[in-house]
Amino acid sequence: MESDVRVILGLYAQGEFDRGLALARQLQRAVPQAAITNYCLGHGLAALQRPAEALAFLRKATQAEPRNAEFMVRYGRALLDVGRIREAETTLQRAYDLNPRMPIGPYTLAVYYASINRFDAALPHFRKVLDAELPAEMRAGVTMDWATALIEVGQVDEASEVLREALKHGQSRAAALASLSQIKAFPLGSEEFLLIEEELAKAGVSGLARSSLLMAKAASFAAIGDYNREFDLILEAKAVRGGTTPLAGLSKLVDDLTTVVTPEVLEGLQARFGTSTFQPIYVVGLPRSGTTLTERILAAHSAVGGAGELQLVNDLARNVMGKHALASVVAAFSSLPAGRLQELLADIEATMRFLCPGVDRIVD
Fold this sequence. Notes:
By secondary structure, this protein is an all-alpha fold. Helix content is 69%, strand content 2%. A two-stranded parallel ribbon has the order 1-2. It is globular and about 65 Å long.
Protein backbone atom coordinates (compact mmCIF):
# COMPACT_ATOMS: atom_id res chain seq x y z
CA MET A 1 0.00 0.00 0.00
CA GLU A 2 2.86 2.40 0.75
CA SER A 3 4.15 2.23 -2.81
CA ASP A 4 0.64 2.92 -4.16
CA VAL A 5 0.34 5.97 -1.90
CA ARG A 6 3.70 7.29 -3.13
CA VAL A 7 2.56 6.91 -6.74
CA ILE A 8 -0.73 8.75 -6.05
CA LEU A 9 0.89 11.63 -4.17
CA GLY A 10 3.57 11.82 -6.87
CA LEU A 11 0.91 12.20 -9.56
CA TYR A 12 -0.77 14.92 -7.49
CA ALA A 13 2.57 16.72 -7.13
CA GLN A 14 2.92 16.68 -10.92
CA GLY A 15 -0.59 18.09 -11.37
CA GLU A 16 -1.98 14.82 -12.77
CA PHE A 17 -4.98 14.80 -10.48
CA ASP A 18 -7.33 12.79 -12.71
CA ARG A 19 -4.89 9.87 -12.92
CA GLY A 20 -4.05 10.11 -9.24
CA LEU A 21 -7.72 10.25 -8.29
CA ALA A 22 -8.54 7.13 -10.28
CA LEU A 23 -5.81 5.21 -8.45
CA ALA A 24 -6.89 6.71 -5.10
CA ARG A 25 -10.46 5.44 -5.63
CA GLN A 26 -9.19 1.93 -6.30
CA LEU A 27 -6.96 1.98 -3.23
CA GLN A 28 -9.72 3.36 -0.98
CA ARG A 29 -12.12 0.64 -2.11
CA ALA A 30 -9.48 -1.98 -1.35
CA VAL A 31 -8.63 -0.56 2.10
CA PRO A 32 -11.64 1.61 3.06
CA GLN A 33 -10.80 2.10 6.73
CA ALA A 34 -7.17 3.20 6.38
CA ALA A 35 -6.51 6.86 7.13
CA ILE A 36 -4.05 7.30 4.27
CA THR A 37 -6.35 5.86 1.60
CA ASN A 38 -9.17 8.19 2.63
CA TYR A 39 -6.73 11.10 2.77
CA CYS A 40 -5.44 10.41 -0.74
CA LEU A 41 -8.97 10.27 -2.17
CA GLY A 42 -10.13 13.38 -0.29
CA HIS A 43 -6.97 15.27 -1.27
CA GLY A 44 -7.57 14.53 -4.96
CA LEU A 45 -11.25 15.48 -4.87
CA ALA A 46 -10.47 18.76 -3.10
CA ALA A 47 -7.74 19.58 -5.64
CA LEU A 48 -10.27 19.07 -8.45
CA GLN A 49 -12.62 21.63 -6.87
CA ARG A 50 -14.95 19.01 -5.43
CA PRO A 51 -14.68 19.80 -1.71
CA ALA A 52 -18.18 18.64 -0.81
CA GLU A 53 -17.29 15.12 -2.01
CA ALA A 54 -13.88 15.31 -0.36
CA LEU A 55 -15.21 16.04 3.12
CA ALA A 56 -16.41 12.54 4.00
CA PHE A 57 -13.07 10.96 3.12
CA LEU A 58 -10.97 13.63 4.81
CA ARG A 59 -13.15 13.34 7.92
CA LYS A 60 -12.50 9.58 7.99
CA ALA A 61 -8.78 10.24 7.69
CA THR A 62 -8.77 12.63 10.66
CA GLN A 63 -10.92 10.26 12.72
CA ALA A 64 -8.56 7.38 12.02
CA GLU A 65 -5.46 9.49 12.81
CA PRO A 66 -6.65 12.33 15.05
CA ARG A 67 -3.10 13.52 15.76
CA ASN A 68 -2.08 13.97 12.13
CA ALA A 69 -1.78 17.73 11.63
CA GLU A 70 -1.47 17.46 7.84
CA PHE A 71 -4.75 15.54 7.61
CA MET A 72 -6.39 18.18 9.83
CA VAL A 73 -5.18 21.03 7.61
CA ARG A 74 -6.50 19.41 4.43
CA TYR A 75 -9.86 18.74 6.12
CA GLY A 76 -10.00 22.34 7.39
CA ARG A 77 -9.36 23.70 3.92
CA ALA A 78 -12.18 21.61 2.48
CA LEU A 79 -14.51 22.90 5.20
CA LEU A 80 -13.61 26.46 4.22
CA ASP A 81 -14.26 25.66 0.56
CA VAL A 82 -17.85 24.71 1.37
CA GLY A 83 -18.36 27.68 3.71
CA ARG A 84 -18.36 25.80 7.02
CA ILE A 85 -16.14 28.40 8.64
CA ARG A 86 -16.89 27.65 12.28
CA GLU A 87 -15.90 23.97 11.91
CA ALA A 88 -12.86 24.98 9.86
CA GLU A 89 -11.68 27.32 12.64
CA THR A 90 -11.82 24.48 15.17
CA THR A 91 -10.15 21.98 12.85
CA LEU A 92 -7.32 24.27 11.76
CA GLN A 93 -6.68 25.40 15.33
CA ARG A 94 -6.41 21.73 16.31
CA ALA A 95 -3.84 21.22 13.55
CA TYR A 96 -1.81 24.14 14.91
CA ASP A 97 -2.04 22.81 18.48
CA LEU A 98 -0.77 19.44 17.28
CA ASN A 99 2.22 20.99 15.52
CA PRO A 100 2.92 24.67 16.32
CA ARG A 101 5.98 24.52 14.08
CA MET A 102 3.64 24.06 11.11
CA PRO A 103 1.55 27.27 11.17
CA ILE A 104 -0.28 26.40 7.96
CA GLY A 105 -3.56 26.16 9.93
CA PRO A 106 -3.69 29.81 11.04
CA TYR A 107 -2.18 30.91 7.71
CA THR A 108 -4.98 29.14 5.84
CA LEU A 109 -7.56 30.95 7.98
CA ALA A 110 -5.80 34.30 7.58
CA VAL A 111 -5.69 34.02 3.79
CA TYR A 112 -9.32 32.89 3.67
CA TYR A 113 -10.57 35.80 5.78
CA ALA A 114 -8.51 38.25 3.71
CA SER A 115 -9.98 36.79 0.51
CA ILE A 116 -13.52 37.59 1.69
CA ASN A 117 -12.47 41.08 2.88
CA ARG A 118 -12.73 40.20 6.58
CA PHE A 119 -9.32 41.64 7.40
CA ASP A 120 -10.28 42.15 11.04
CA ALA A 121 -10.69 38.40 11.38
CA ALA A 122 -7.50 37.73 9.41
CA LEU A 123 -5.18 39.82 11.62
CA PRO A 124 -4.92 37.56 14.70
CA HIS A 125 -4.18 34.58 12.49
CA PHE A 126 -1.44 36.45 10.60
CA ARG A 127 0.11 37.40 13.96
CA LYS A 128 0.06 33.77 15.07
CA VAL A 129 1.88 32.73 11.89
CA LEU A 130 4.52 35.42 12.36
CA ASP A 131 5.15 34.18 15.92
CA ALA A 132 6.36 30.88 14.46
CA GLU A 133 9.77 30.15 12.98
CA LEU A 134 9.44 30.70 9.24
CA PRO A 135 11.78 30.57 6.25
CA ALA A 136 12.86 34.09 5.27
CA GLU A 137 10.91 34.09 1.99
CA MET A 138 7.69 32.92 3.63
CA ARG A 139 8.09 35.45 6.46
CA ALA A 140 8.45 38.26 3.92
CA GLY A 141 5.24 37.22 2.16
CA VAL A 142 3.23 36.81 5.35
CA THR A 143 4.51 40.18 6.61
CA MET A 144 3.22 41.90 3.47
CA ASP A 145 -0.17 40.18 3.84
CA TRP A 146 -0.28 41.30 7.47
CA ALA A 147 0.53 44.90 6.51
CA THR A 148 -2.25 44.86 3.91
CA ALA A 149 -4.72 43.68 6.55
CA LEU A 150 -3.55 46.44 8.92
CA ILE A 151 -4.17 49.07 6.24
CA GLU A 152 -7.62 47.70 5.47
CA VAL A 153 -8.73 47.97 9.12
CA GLY A 154 -7.28 51.47 9.48
CA GLN A 155 -4.22 50.65 11.60
CA VAL A 156 -2.00 52.68 9.29
CA ASP A 157 0.65 53.68 11.85
CA GLU A 158 1.47 50.07 12.65
CA ALA A 159 1.29 49.19 8.96
CA SER A 160 3.75 51.97 8.13
CA GLU A 161 6.24 50.64 10.66
CA VAL A 162 5.96 47.13 9.27
CA LEU A 163 6.33 48.31 5.67
CA ARG A 164 9.29 50.61 6.34
CA GLU A 165 11.07 47.68 7.95
CA ALA A 166 10.24 45.62 4.83
CA LEU A 167 11.88 48.28 2.63
CA LYS A 168 15.22 47.10 3.98
CA HIS A 169 14.76 43.73 2.34
CA GLY A 170 15.07 43.55 -1.43
CA GLN A 171 12.65 40.66 -1.94
CA SER A 172 9.70 42.63 -0.55
CA ARG A 173 10.72 46.20 -1.42
CA ALA A 174 8.43 46.62 -4.43
CA ALA A 175 5.37 45.36 -2.54
CA ALA A 176 6.24 47.52 0.49
CA LEU A 177 6.53 50.66 -1.66
CA ALA A 178 3.19 49.95 -3.33
CA SER A 179 1.47 49.43 0.03
CA LEU A 180 3.03 52.52 1.61
CA SER A 181 1.77 54.64 -1.28
CA GLN A 182 -1.78 53.60 -0.37
CA ILE A 183 -1.31 55.26 3.01
CA LYS A 184 0.29 58.45 1.70
CA ALA A 185 1.64 59.42 -1.72
CA PHE A 186 5.40 59.94 -1.90
CA PRO A 187 6.60 63.47 -2.81
CA LEU A 188 8.46 63.67 -6.11
CA GLY A 189 12.16 63.31 -5.48
CA SER A 190 11.70 61.76 -2.03
CA GLU A 191 13.73 58.73 -0.99
CA GLU A 192 10.72 56.47 -1.50
CA PHE A 193 9.93 57.94 -4.94
CA LEU A 194 13.53 57.36 -6.02
CA LEU A 195 13.29 53.77 -4.77
CA ILE A 196 10.23 53.28 -7.02
CA GLU A 197 12.26 54.52 -9.98
CA GLU A 198 15.11 52.20 -9.01
CA GLU A 199 12.81 49.18 -8.78
CA LEU A 200 11.15 49.98 -12.12
CA ALA A 201 14.57 50.16 -13.79
CA LYS A 202 15.48 46.63 -12.72
CA ALA A 203 15.34 43.81 -15.23
CA GLY A 204 13.07 40.89 -14.51
CA VAL A 205 10.48 42.72 -12.39
CA SER A 206 7.23 40.74 -12.55
CA GLY A 207 4.21 42.22 -14.27
CA LEU A 208 2.26 42.41 -11.02
CA ALA A 209 5.10 44.17 -9.17
CA ARG A 210 5.68 46.61 -12.05
CA SER A 211 1.99 47.41 -12.23
CA SER A 212 1.86 48.09 -8.47
CA LEU A 213 4.94 50.33 -8.65
CA LEU A 214 3.46 52.31 -11.55
CA MET A 215 0.27 52.85 -9.53
CA ALA A 216 2.39 54.08 -6.60
CA LYS A 217 4.19 56.47 -8.91
CA ALA A 218 0.85 57.67 -10.32
CA ALA A 219 -0.29 58.55 -6.80
CA SER A 220 2.71 60.87 -6.42
CA PHE A 221 1.73 62.84 -9.52
CA ALA A 222 -1.92 62.95 -8.44
CA ALA A 223 -0.80 64.52 -5.14
CA ILE A 224 0.65 67.53 -7.00
CA GLY A 225 -2.30 67.84 -9.40
CA ASP A 226 -0.57 66.43 -12.48
CA TYR A 227 -3.52 64.29 -13.47
CA ASN A 228 -2.45 63.83 -17.08
CA ARG A 229 0.77 62.13 -15.95
CA GLU A 230 -1.18 60.17 -13.35
CA PHE A 231 -3.61 58.92 -15.99
CA ASP A 232 -0.79 57.89 -18.34
CA LEU A 233 0.84 55.87 -15.55
CA ILE A 234 -2.45 54.20 -14.64
CA LEU A 235 -2.96 53.18 -18.27
CA GLU A 236 0.59 51.81 -18.38
CA ALA A 237 -0.02 49.88 -15.14
CA LYS A 238 -3.21 48.33 -16.54
CA ALA A 239 -1.44 47.35 -19.77
CA VAL A 240 1.38 45.71 -17.83
CA ARG A 241 -0.97 43.76 -15.59
CA GLY A 242 -3.00 42.50 -18.54
CA GLY A 243 -6.36 40.83 -18.42
CA THR A 244 -9.78 42.40 -18.88
CA THR A 245 -13.17 41.95 -17.31
CA PRO A 246 -15.24 39.62 -19.57
CA LEU A 247 -18.00 42.16 -20.12
CA ALA A 248 -19.76 40.19 -22.86
CA GLY A 249 -20.06 37.10 -20.65
CA LEU A 250 -21.21 39.15 -17.67
CA SER A 251 -23.76 40.98 -19.81
CA LYS A 252 -25.19 37.69 -21.09
CA LEU A 253 -25.40 36.28 -17.57
CA VAL A 254 -27.28 39.35 -16.30
CA ASP A 255 -29.63 39.25 -19.31
CA ASP A 256 -30.35 35.54 -18.76
CA LEU A 257 -30.98 36.04 -15.05
CA THR A 258 -33.39 38.95 -15.54
CA THR A 259 -35.23 37.02 -18.27
CA VAL A 260 -35.66 33.79 -16.31
CA VAL A 261 -35.71 34.88 -12.66
CA THR A 262 -38.57 37.35 -12.88
CA PRO A 263 -40.33 38.95 -9.89
CA GLU A 264 -43.14 36.43 -10.37
CA VAL A 265 -40.71 33.50 -10.21
CA LEU A 266 -39.09 34.91 -7.08
CA GLU A 267 -42.48 35.42 -5.42
CA GLY A 268 -43.43 31.83 -6.23
CA LEU A 269 -40.16 30.48 -4.79
CA GLN A 270 -40.60 32.65 -1.70
CA ALA A 271 -44.10 31.31 -1.14
CA ARG A 272 -42.98 27.68 -1.45
CA PHE A 273 -39.52 27.70 0.10
CA GLY A 274 -38.93 31.04 1.77
CA THR A 275 -38.41 31.86 5.42
CA SER A 276 -38.78 35.14 7.26
CA THR A 277 -36.73 34.20 10.33
CA PHE A 278 -33.41 35.25 8.80
CA GLN A 279 -33.13 38.09 6.30
CA PRO A 280 -29.57 38.92 5.25
CA ILE A 281 -28.82 41.91 3.04
CA TYR A 282 -27.07 40.97 -0.21
CA VAL A 283 -25.11 43.55 -2.20
CA VAL A 284 -24.86 42.51 -5.85
CA GLY A 285 -23.02 44.20 -8.71
CA LEU A 286 -20.34 43.96 -11.36
CA PRO A 287 -16.63 43.88 -10.43
CA ARG A 288 -15.16 47.28 -9.45
CA SER A 289 -18.65 48.83 -9.22
CA GLY A 290 -18.58 49.81 -5.54
CA THR A 291 -20.13 46.73 -3.93
CA THR A 292 -17.39 46.44 -1.28
CA LEU A 293 -17.74 50.11 -0.34
CA THR A 294 -21.53 49.73 -0.11
CA GLU A 295 -21.15 46.71 2.17
CA ARG A 296 -18.74 48.59 4.44
CA ILE A 297 -21.03 51.64 4.65
CA LEU A 298 -23.98 49.45 5.66
CA ALA A 299 -21.86 47.46 8.13
CA ALA A 300 -20.76 50.69 9.83
CA HIS A 301 -24.22 50.82 11.44
CA SER A 302 -24.20 49.45 14.98
CA ALA A 303 -27.09 47.08 14.25
CA VAL A 304 -25.54 45.65 11.08
CA GLY A 305 -22.68 43.19 10.71
CA GLY A 306 -20.50 42.83 7.61
CA ALA A 307 -19.89 39.17 6.73
CA GLY A 308 -17.42 40.10 4.00
CA GLU A 309 -17.70 38.76 0.47
CA LEU A 310 -18.72 35.15 0.99
CA GLN A 311 -19.30 32.56 -1.71
CA LEU A 312 -22.17 30.92 0.16
CA VAL A 313 -24.87 31.97 -2.30
CA ASN A 314 -22.80 30.72 -5.24
CA ASP A 315 -22.35 27.42 -3.39
CA LEU A 316 -26.08 27.28 -2.72
CA ALA A 317 -26.81 27.86 -6.41
CA ARG A 318 -24.48 25.02 -7.41
CA ASN A 319 -26.08 22.67 -4.87
CA VAL A 320 -29.60 23.55 -5.98
CA MET A 321 -29.11 23.79 -9.74
CA GLY A 322 -26.85 20.77 -10.21
CA LYS A 323 -27.10 19.89 -13.90
CA HIS A 324 -30.30 21.91 -14.39
CA ALA A 325 -30.21 24.75 -16.90
CA LEU A 326 -31.03 28.25 -15.65
CA ALA A 327 -34.43 28.10 -17.37
CA SER A 328 -35.33 25.17 -15.09
CA VAL A 329 -34.72 27.03 -11.83
CA VAL A 330 -38.17 26.18 -10.39
CA ALA A 331 -37.77 22.52 -11.30
CA ALA A 332 -34.31 22.52 -9.68
CA PHE A 333 -35.72 23.74 -6.37
CA SER A 334 -38.63 21.29 -6.57
CA SER A 335 -36.34 18.31 -7.22
CA LEU A 336 -34.37 18.73 -3.99
CA PRO A 337 -34.89 15.99 -1.37
CA ALA A 338 -37.24 16.93 1.45
CA GLY A 339 -35.55 19.20 3.93
CA ARG A 340 -32.36 19.61 1.86
CA LEU A 341 -32.95 23.29 1.04
CA GLN A 342 -33.65 24.06 4.69
CA GLU A 343 -30.35 22.37 5.61
CA LEU A 344 -28.44 24.49 3.06
CA LEU A 345 -30.11 27.69 4.24
CA ALA A 346 -29.46 26.80 7.88
CA ASP A 347 -25.76 26.34 7.07
CA ILE A 348 -25.66 29.82 5.49
CA GLU A 349 -27.38 31.39 8.49
CA ALA A 350 -25.06 29.62 10.96
CA THR A 351 -21.97 30.80 9.10
CA MET A 352 -23.13 34.40 8.83
CA ARG A 353 -24.15 34.54 12.49
CA PHE A 354 -20.79 33.06 13.46
CA LEU A 355 -19.02 35.82 11.54
CA CYS A 356 -21.33 38.56 12.83
CA PRO A 357 -22.63 37.67 16.28
CA GLY A 358 -25.13 39.83 18.17
CA VAL A 359 -26.42 42.05 15.33
CA ASP A 360 -29.91 42.50 13.92
CA ARG A 361 -29.01 42.34 10.22
CA ILE A 362 -26.05 40.93 8.29
CA VAL A 363 -24.81 42.18 4.94
CA ASP A 364 -22.87 40.13 2.40
